[in-house]
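DATA SHEET
Item: assembly model
Revision: 1
Owner: S.N.
Input lines:
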Amino acid sequence: MLLQLKNIFKWVNSGGQRIFLLKDINLTVEEGEFISVMGPSGSGKSTLLNVIGMLDNFDEGEYHFLDESVHTLKEKHRANLYKEYIGFVFQSYHLLDDLTVYENLEMPLLYKKYRSSERKAMVADMLDRFNMVGKKDLFPAQLSGGQQQLVGVARALIAGPKLILADEPTGNLNSQQSEEIMQLFKTLNQEDGVTIIQVTHSEMNAAYGSRIINLLDGRKIGD
Amino acid sequence: MIKSLFKIAWRNLIKRKVFSSISILGLAIGFGSAILIYLFLSYHLSFDDFHPNQDRIYRMATEEHMDDINYSASVPPAFAKVFREDYAYAEKVAKIVDREGLVLDVEQNGGINKYSKNIMFAEEDFFKIFNFPLKNGGNAVSLSAPNTAVITESEALEMYGTTDVVGKTFVLENDATIEITGVLKDIPNTSFLNHEIFISFENLEKYSEFAHGENWGGITTNLQCYALLKPNQDIATIENALLELPKQHRPNSKNTHIYKLQPLSDIHLNLEYGGLNPVFLVVFGIIGLFLIAIACINFVNISTAQAFYRSKEIGIRKVLGSFKRQLFWQFLSETFLISLFAMILGIVLAILFLPAFNALFEIQLTMESLVSVQFFGFLLALLLLVSILSGSYPGILLSRIVPILALKGKLNHNDTGGATTRKVLVVTQFVISISLIVATLVISRQIEYATQTDLGFDKESIVMLQVPETMDSAKFYDLKERLKQVVGVQQVSGCLTSPGAGDTFWDTTVKYNNRPEREDFSISVKVGDEDYLNTFSIPLVAGRNFFKNDSITELLVNEKFAEKLGISSSEELLGKTLAVNGDRVEATIVGVVRNFHDSSFTDEIKPVFIAPTVRWYNELGIKINHLNTKSTLEQLKKEWSQTFSNHIFDYRFLDERVAEQYETEQRYLSLSKVFSGLAIFIGCMGLYGLILFFVGQRKKEVGIRKVLGSNITGILTLFSIDFLKLVLIAGAIAVPFAWYFMDVWLQGYTYRTQIHWWYFAISIVAVLVLTLLTISYQTIRVAIKNPVNSLRTE
């Protein structure tokens, strides 16, 4: 078991009313799974992903990640935990505009105190694997959307996470670019054994995964 | 990691050129000013710190207790000998006496060059107390024999064209031939001593009988007495022992002397004993801090406003595993980088403005003073201080950003925070600017008041000529008559000093109307002939002027004298006798003149008597017609030179001399003008940055408003109203603040101007207008753009 959510509730209070963003979510994810979270807008997909990624808090319930009880951890420990095991991929890539491809890839490593020579090797390896050696000195704005997302995925992978969380990773891409990214995810999942949870609107993308979770109004209605 | 931080900091700088320039330029001006102010302060604090025995060197000073206390940086001429011989406290005691404008004849290339020089008559031991070494090292100065002198290297160069002048001679005051026995290294600028020529004390008698003799009768401020104490002396004990001296030597004097030992380090910055006012340095320091503060505030404002732009980057970094602490340090290192650039620029600015700064404050700072361990220490400390001050708050704000909100672009301005802080900071800047403008207005008004108020005498179109040697009556009246004949001359008066002579005064005590005791207040002596009143237009309020006379038989007093005596009617004084000059002379009061300001407005008007004595005439006051000043002066020179053929003609205008009393105030004024200008400039620049940012952020809003029918005025109002409110708030804070401090400043003046409400009104309006101008430029630029452009990008 990689992670387990037990009776997770998350709400906001608005105008004296409690609006539930997540309602009684129970979810167990095993290592090596490729899960697609689906549901209409506002159903809580991204919120769920953020909770799993420890970027967002929840109000009630238990969350176990590997051997740790996330709900009892202090923020600093939580940060350590996701830093170590989780990579993020975003719909709008979220690359740093001021950094080159190379530097964007290097950044997570800087925060993990790798030595300079190690960083060089790891970035070079990643550039090689994603066929981006020629683009390493370009800035994000000089790349197409697909290429930017490729960098985004590479950046998520570089520190060797156990879990990749992808929030509509192909939402800004055309169909051909989408397909490439999804193919990449599938390869990563099957050949490298990386666990992937993606949020998507597209049935086609969901089909790449091994399991689909449906959400409606913050509640899990199908698994 | 560090490399990566600096890399991104650099790229950020390049990317936001305008904001970076504003931050860097503002900080650079702040740094430049701080550097100059630091140099200025360290210059003034380093006076005479180069004497090996400086802790044991003291200047002998006197507190003169009469109806009030007068502090004099001198002692009676006889003091030195007694202190040296009758007491065992000192290793060495030496006195020096300075005389201004003595004539030196130097023979060179067969001809004779005349110089007018300030001379210090010094006892040989003076050079054993202090560290003023000879050119070849050592302090073996030989001045004990009469007709010997030592001069500095630059003086030697000026007079002889070489520094190899030992054995050469010059003629002093067309009389004694003086031989140079040594050449001194130049005296450092940071010394109480600013003389170049030192002549044996034995030669003094001719030029000041009083200072040369063993007198206890009075004090001349031309004389200074220094002592090198034996180690481990208790000053209080010594001062206590010295209490005996006045009892012994001045038993009958109403002017009770208390002798004091003033430490060497105290000389430059003790106002009472004629040093620089240390408050001046404090004010300087505070202004330096203000400028740095304003520059830091700019920086904080601009960077917190930009936090919004950077929130995405922060969000990503956090998600990728950065800790708050790391982000904080990232931001701090960026600030450091910016500060470093600013500092380099600041140093360049400081170097560029050093000459102007020197001229403004009449000091001699050099580039060499920049190359010292202390200075680099100061720079480093300043750099770190500014980086931390201006980097930490934005750093905290940025590192606090919640990543998922930032990544979703759902952050608005209030979430990035700092809006309230920014307002507070902007208000602080305005408060400083408004206060500085008020200070500038009040100071200049006080100077104007002092220089334009009726001083009780006329100072316009009056030329003061020196009388270089004592004259007998025949010589004086001959010269006066000839000067009177010069075209354009209206009045001529021989006198000791003009009214408004400031520092140069002569105080004495008198016996009124045959009373048994002398009065317990001192009275200023204005020696002058029968034309003194006419020349300086001093009106009589009772009685008549005295008749032409060579010496004192009749005299005039001022109204203040009557007041001090407690006599209400001036008429009552007429016909009464006054015993002056140590009771040796008795004269009749024949007239009472209106009070006039003899010294600066900081001092109360003193009682005065005016009487003639030809041999004391030191100056000639000449009232001229201002239309033909130049030719009149030439004629005056001709007539004067006929009498004093061996002297150098020199003149001064009385109004300039009076203005000199306000030199400190003039400096305060230049100071507050320059620095309030800078403060306002930096402030406006920061404001411009903020506006640039707000306008950029609200482009879309402006577009929508224009489409909905708003005009340019409407949009300008939209942006400026908030800032104008801040100016008004700042005004409300600045008024009591500035009022209080300027009132304290004005309390230092016995005669002073009022603080008017409109000083504040002017200052606030000025800042309002500047703010509006600063805002308008950017706002109007955006407002006149076609709204379609700003809306289309969405």
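QC remark: DSSP finds seven helices and ten strands in chain A.
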